[in-house]
Input
Amino acid sequence: MQLSSTITTAMSVVGYAYLAYQMANLLVNIIWACTDEEFKLAIKKKLS
Output
């Protein structure tokens, strides 16, 4: 019974860590999102 409790706790910690990572990633993408104009400019620079 102790082993299953330990595994459950470990899975919970991993799940919360993944949730925190996803939330941080989402916030970064929202805050620093490129506009359509910036995206087109970046493509033009790469093709030049």
Observations:
- The chain has one domain: 2-47.
- The CA atoms of residues 37 and 43 lie 10 Å apart.
